[in-house]
Specification:
Strand order of the largest sheet: 1-7-6-4-3-2
Order of helices and strands: HEHEEEEHEEEEHH
Radius of gyration: 18 Å
Helix content: 25-40%
Oligomer: single chain
Largest sheet: 6 strands, mixed
Distance between the termini: 31 Å
Amino acid sequence: MSPEIRNILDEIGVIQSIYKNLFQFLPSFKVTDDSILPYGLKPHTRSVSWLVEQVITQQTKFRKKALGLDEVSFDMPDTCLHDCEITKGGKIYYVNVKIHNMGGRENKNDISAVEKLYMQYSANPDYNLIYACFGIHFKGIEIHFDTDYMQLFSPQFLPIYVNPRNDKIQAFYHHDPVLRSRREFMELLRKNSKSIVLKR
């Protein structure tokens, strides 16, 4: 195994450890109260995903001392690939938080626009993105975190399938990683993306 691949796996391991420790602080919570939404929200992940992502990132920052972190930043532009930057031991980890509704099926999900990934990975050779997917149980207006479900992965190790309709990588959150070099990853993105090919 190359040092490059080992480094990415180590980074994933660090983030996994941080978030497993975070579970002891993550509250179950109500999105609002029954008088505001007497019939609850539709049980779709998109109904609550942004809010739940904010709970995770803000709790990570709020609990940074207990989690042994130097800093957590989540004030990122909407165009940014990552939702937050976690600094531990002077090293910055770039994390994108995703949500999976445990009451639904495991489907392929849009992970990222290929062009955005390609441009970011080209512009910064030290940039390694980590996706962290949390499971939730969602009923009415109540959210409960599933402490038995957490999927962490690097886009570099994804099975590459690009949806031709929107030029986004699609994958199951739970998948077997394909350990490949950054160069191999970039080449696969070029080969499978219409938008990148047009700009070559």
